[in-house]
Each structure stands twice: as structure tokens, then as C-alpha cells.
Specification:
The complex is a heterodimer of chains A (about 230) and B (about 400).
Chain A lengths: L1 E11 L5 E12 L4 E5 L6 H8 L7 E6 L2 E2 L5 H11 E4 L11 H10 L9 H8 L15 H13 L5 E5 L7 H16 L3 E6 L2 H4 L4 E6 L2 E7 L6 H5 L1
Parallel strand pairs in A: 3-8, 3-9, 6-7, 7-8
Antiparallel strand pairs in A: 1-2, 1-4, 4-5, 9-10
Chain B lengths: L2 H14 L1 H40 L3 E6 L17 H10 L3 E17 L2 E10 L3 H4 L4 E4 L4 H6 L3 E4 L1 H8 L8 E4 L2 E9 L14 E5 H8 L7 E6 L5 H15 L10 E4 L1 H44 L1 H9 L4 H37 L7 H29 L2 H5 L1
Helix pairs in contact in B: 1-11, 2-9, 2-11, 2-12, 9-12, 11-12
Classes of the chains: A alpha/beta (about 230), B alpha+beta (about 400).
Chain lengths: ~230, ~400
């Protein structure tokens, strides 16, 4: 369902130096997969995620989303597609301060052309077990809870693809486990998830790991036995 | 992606940043208030000036002042030379002079009644001043030609004098002392208000000019005279004639400057134009600076806000906001804030203009003018403060913004 074909991306540093962030990257992700893109910082994994998330366009190659080539879309078309098909989870949560959990979750609806959106925010918060924190502001929530609000926000438009960039990077072990367990539960329910991480512990929870080094995919293998946090939690 | 939802959302967002919103509103409020105040009070002042000037000069009067100095408080020449005979001669020689009234004053003279002493403007005038200055006695009567000829010790007083000196007592027939000279009050002047210099023209005591010159000030010259013309179109020619007559009578050599000043209707119009220039050019310019500073403060706060909210902008882009959505949001945020501040500024400027107008007796301030100026000014501030930050926010690349 998602396919990258020979993607290239080159940046120019302010110094004029060219950086080849992605070199001939090809990757195919099936619906319902739980993929980890693992690599050190500077390996190109964030650039890859930006291209997956339609935040950036490749210089060369093709990106097929749902069979449709989206590599040449306009900025406006990209934004509409992001709203409908992609949910983002960031390391630093990116919740709006002084704004309730519910309003944070409902933010993508502001830019959506869906008709009825009533009750969606509450439902999304229920799905991340935060029904009792609806009117709390981010400053009144723990890190783990904040990240769960962010996940609810990413899910509110029922995206085809959930993209998480170092989702546990700012969390303690306990909260990190909770978040990874939540991802596993969502994946089990059929959600396609891509997690970008440098942490092999996090990657070990996913169904497949693609390793990236210096802009190239160096290995792409399924995880024989992903760590199952849902069972551990029970 | 309904713009209305984004507008609503932006307004809600502003309410969450109370301090910044407050300061932005303050910036816009001060600027708009300053401009509204200056323009509204200015319009009232202009109306008042024109009204007062036309009451004082009409459009067919010439004013002659003793001394070659300037009108209105300018330096007076050393030797006062202007005499009643000069004016008699002018009136005799120039048929265009319909009537004239000489003036000599004792500014800030002390006036006593019983054991109360007050300062008042004591003016010596002729019986014709009632007609020439168009100010009658509302009670009692004006002194007549016989009283002026005989230098009678009679006085006509203004309403302020009645209030301060007589404390409500009937002034008619009462005795007042100007310096040590006793006068009998025979009339009360109809109210006049303040003149363009802010002087209370009701705090006046009018006495026959002959009495003032002989018994109080002991001079044989007059300070000024107002001449009513039959034909105002001939004012310039009449003025030239007056000059010729006075120079001849004062035996001024060709190289000597005038020892008098003639103010013609054209000069009065020039003065009014000067006042209008101050009211509608210089003062608004100063207030405009306040407005620009207010707009800059708002713009800078908005820019700081955009910089501080880079992550938020990135996030909004990530969840589907287009460039236009971001631009709209920040434009609405600054516009809503500055226009709200502007509305307060209009209220403040209007209240201040009303207060000033009532203090300076300028009469009514037009609300509609105030509103128009205020709305235009707030919109200008909003656009000034909002455009650049909104463009900057919209230009951010989502990837950079999320970093």
C-alpha cells in the first residue's frame, strides 16, 4: 500500500555543502504492518519519515500512497492528503499549551473537510484510555499521558498511516512501555504504523526493522518474535 | 477547512495568551486613542475657532492695534501713539467705516465690592461697543454716549463677575471699586464664553473708555480699535487708506516702520488657516507617530509570538494546515487583538476629546467622526501588525518548524 521507489533527497547546508540525506531508497510497507526505521542520528531516518508524511518532497523517485503517486503533489494537495491519510506522533509531543486535551485532539478536524465531527475527540481520547483527562491541559498531564493525547490526535481522522518519530525519546521507561503497548494494540487492530527510532529496544517491539545508514537502507528484516508488551501488561 | 472555523479558533487562541494579547491591545489602544483624540478634539476646536473668530471679527471688520508689534500678545512698541483723534479722523475720512469702537484695558485689574476683591479684565470702551462687538446687556443697560462724553463712573459687568464678586446678590445699582475709583454697576453683559486664548470673556468689567483713561489708567492713548466696514470687499483698500492716514498723523518718515498694526479680514482668515494647519496636520502627525509606534509594538509582539510558536506552526502544517490557513490564523490573531484594542482606543479617545472639549468650552464632539477615524486607524494598525508576522509564519517550512 505504501511504496517508495528509488527515492533521492539532497539538502544544501547554509555553507553550500550538499548533503545526500537519502540515496536510492526503495521500501514497501503493507497495510497493517508495524515497521521500525532504525538508524543513528544523521542517518537520514528523519528525512525518510518527512517524505512518508508528505512534509517534504523527494528530489527523485516515486512515492506511492494507496497506489497513487504522490511525489509530485503541490504543497496544498500534500496538506490535504496529510490531513486525511497521515497521523504524526513526535518525540516532543507538540501539544498546544494552555489548551485542553480534547481541543488538542480535535486540532486536525480544524483543517479537515469532514462533515460531522461531533464526539470524535472524546472517542479518540477513550481509545488511548484518557477519558478522565479530557479537560486537562498538557501542563497537568504526565509525559506518558501527553504522548497518548498526541496519539489520539494522530488517530482522529482515521489515517491510513501512523508515523511516530522517536515517540518514547522524552519518556521514562514506564511511560515508554505504555506508549509502545498502545502502538502494539493499535497495530493489532489493523493500523499501519511506522516508528522512526535510534533505540533498538523500541525497534524490538515492531514487526519489522529497516536499518538506515548514511541515507541508504542497509537491512530490512522482519522481527522473529517482537517483544509483546500487551501480554506483559496483563 | 472552513475559514470561519479557523477565525473562531484564532480568536480563542488569543484569549489563551492574555499577557501578549493585553500588550498588543494596549499598543493599538494608545495609538488609536491618540489619533482619535487629536482629530475629534481638533474638529471641535476648529469649529470653536471659526465660530469665535467670526464673532470677534465678523467678516467685515478691521482691527487697529497700537504699536508695530504683532497681534495677540506680541511685543508692543515703546511709545504708544494711537489716540481717539486718530480714529475720529479715519472715520471722518473713510466712508467705508460704518462704526468704530476704541478699547483701552486694565488686564487683571482688581475689582472690589464690599470686602470682596477679585481680578477681572477691566475694559474701557465707547457706547458703540454694544453694536461694534455685537454684545448687549442682558440686564440693566449699557452706558450711553452722554456717559462716555462725561466720563461717568458707570460699569457693565460680566456674569463671572456677578458670580464671584456679588455672590448671587443683585449687582444693578451696586458700587464697585476699580483700584480706588468707585463705579456704579448699571448693566450685566450677556454671556460670551472663552475666547481663542482661553480667556473667560465673562470675567469682564466694561466702563466708558474716557473714564478709564482719565480716572483709572491716566493715559491719553488707546490700545486698539475695531472698525466695522460697510463693504467688506473694499477691506484691503480701506486698510491701505487707514495706514496712509495713521502714518501721516503720526508723522512717520518713509523709512520708519508703522507704530500700529492693522488686521484685515484676510489676515484673520490666514490665522484661521494657520490654526487649521496645526489642528489637522501637525497634531495628527504627532498622534500618527503614536499610532505607528503602537502598531510596531503589536507587530513585534506578534513576530515574537510567531518565533515562539514555530513548533505549533509545524504541528499545524503536519496535521493538514495549508499555507493559507496559517497565514489566516496569524492575521486574524493580530487583527482581532488590535481591532479590539482599537475599539477601546476609540472609546478612550472619544471620552478624552469630550473631556477636553468641555474643559476648553469647545462644544460637542461628533461621535461619527471619532468612529470613522478610530476604525480607520485600528484597521491600519491591524494590517501593519499582522501582515509581516503572518507572512513569516506561513513561509516556514514544516520540516524546519518541527525541528
Amino acid at each position: 500500500m505504501i511504496e517508495l521507489q528509488h527515492i533521492n533527497k539532497t539538502y544544501t547546508r547554509p555553507t553550500g555543502e550538499a548533503v545526500h540525506a537519502l540515496i536510492d531508497v526503495s521500501l514497501r510497507i503493507q497495510r497493517g504492518e508495524f515497521l521500525a526505521i532504525a538508524g543513528a542520528s544523521g542517518s537520514g531516518k528523519s528525512t525518510l519519515m518527512h517524505i512518508f508524511g508528505l512534509l517534504d518532497s523527494p528530489d527523485g523517485g516515486h512515492y506511492l500512497l494507496d497506489g497513487e503517486d504522490v511525489s509530485g503533489l503541490s504543497v496544498k494537495q500534500q496538506a490535504r492528503l496529510r490531513n486525511r491519510k497521515v497521523g504524526f506522533v513526535f518525540q516532543s509531543f507538540h501539544l498546544l499549551p494552555r489548551t485542553s486535551a480534547l481541543e488538542n485532539v480535535e486540532l486536525p478536524l480544524l483543517y479537515s473537510d469532514r462533515g460531522s465531527t461531533r464526539g470524535l475527540g472524546r472517542k479518540a481520547l477513550e481509545a488511548v484510555h484518557l477519558s478522565d483527562r479530557i479537560h486537562h491541559r498538557p501542563s497537568e498531564l504526565s509525559g506518558g499521558q501527553q504522548q497518548r493525547v498526541a496519539i489520539a490526535r494522530a488517530l482522529i481522522n482515521e489515517p491510513d498511516l501512523l508515523l511516530a518519530d522517536e515517540p518514547t525519546g522524552n519518556l521514562d521507561r514506564q511511560s515508554a512501555s505504555e506508549v509502545m503497548a498502545l502502538f502494539q494494540a493499535l497495530n493489532k487492530a489493523g493500523r499501519t504504523i511506522v516508528v522512526v527510532t535510534h533505540d533498538s529496544e523500541v525497534a524490538a517491539h515492531c514487526g519489522r526493522i529497516a536499518r538506515i545508514e548514511d541515507g541508504r537502507i542497509v537491512s530490512d528484516q522482519p522481527v522473529p518474535q517482537p517483544k509483546n508488551l500487551m501480554e506483559a501488561a496483563q | 477547512m472552513s475559514p470561519i472555523r479557523i477565525v473562531k479558533h484564532s480568536v480563542r487562541t488569543m484569549a489563551r495568551f492574555k499577557l501578549r494579547t493585553g500588550f498588543m491591545m494596549l499598543g493599538s489602544m494608545v495609538g488609536v486613542a491618540a489619533l482619535t483624540f487629536v482629530l475629534s478634539a481638533g474638529r471641535a476646536a476648529e469649529r470653536k475657532t471659526i465660530e469665535t473668530v467670526s464673532r470677534m471679527f465678523g467678516d467685515s471688520a478691521i482691527l487697529i492695534e497700537d504699536g508695530g508689534g504683532h497681534f495677540a500678545g506680541g511685543p508692543r512698541g515703546q511709545g504708544s501713539r494711537l489716540k481717539l483723534d486718530d480714529l475720529d479722523a479715519i472715520a471722518r475720512e473713510l466712508p467705508n467705516v460704518e462704526s468704530w469702537d476704541p478699547q483701552q484695558g486694565l488686564p487683571g485689574g482688581s475689582v472690589r465690592h464690599g470686602d470682596v476683591t477679585e481680578r477681572a479684565r477691566v475694559m474701557g470702551e465707547s457706547e458703540r461697543s454694544e453694536h461694534v462687538w455685537g454684545r448687549k446687556a442682558s440686564r440693566g443697560e449699557y452706558f450711553d454716549a452722554a456717559a462716555v462724553k462725561a466720563a461717568d463712573r458707570v460699569a457693565v459687568v460680566g456674569e463671572t463677575v456677578v458670580r464671584t464678586l456679588f455672590k448671587g446678590e443683585d449687582p444693578l445699582g451696586a458700587e464697585i471699586r476699580i483700584g480706588s475709583v468707585p463705579f456704579r454697576v448699571i448693566g450685566v453683559l450677556e454671556p460670551w464664553g472663552t475666547d481663542p486664548h482661553g480667556m473667560d470673556r465673562d470675567n469682564e468689567v466694561l466702563v466708558p473708555i474716557t473714564t478709564l483713561m482719565r480716572r483709572v489708567t491716566n493715559v491719553d492713548t488707546i490700545a486698539s480699535a475695531k472698525l466695522l466696514l460697510r463693504n467688506s470687499n473694499d477691506a484691503e483698500r480701506t486698510s491701505t487708506e487707514i495706514r496712509r492716514i495713521l502714518r501721516a498723523r503720526h508723522a512717520l518718515a518713509a523709512n520708519e516702520p508703522d507704530d500700529f498694526t492693522i488686521i484685515t479680514p484676510a489676515e484673520v482668515r490666514g490665522m484661521v488657516a494657520q490654526v487649521q494647519k496645526v489642528l489637522f496636520l501637525y497634531l495628527p502627525l504627532v498622534a500618527g507617530v503614536a499610532l505607528v509606534v503602537g502598531a510596531l509594538v503589536s507587530a513585534i509582539l506578534m513576530l515574537v509570538s510567531v518565533n515562539a510558536r514555530t513548533g505549533e506552526i509545524g504541528l499545524r502544517r503536519a496535521v493538514g494546515a495549508g499555507i493559507g490557513d496559517i497565514r489566516l490564523q496569524f492575521l486574524v490573531e493580530s487583527a482581532a487583538t488590535t481591532i479590539a484594542g482599537g475599539a477601546l482606543g476609540i472609546a478612550l479617545g472619544y471620552a478624552a476629546a469630550r473631556a477636553a472639549a468641555s474643559r476648553m468650552h469647545l462644544g460637542e464632539v461628533e461621535l461619527i467622526t471619532t468612529l470613522l477615524f478610530g476604525i480607520a486607524a485600528s484597521t491600519a494598525v491591524g494590517l501593519l501588525a499582522g501582515t509581516i508576522p503572518a507572512m513569516r509564519a506561513a513561509r516556514l517550512h514544516p520540516v524546519d518548524a518541527l525541528r
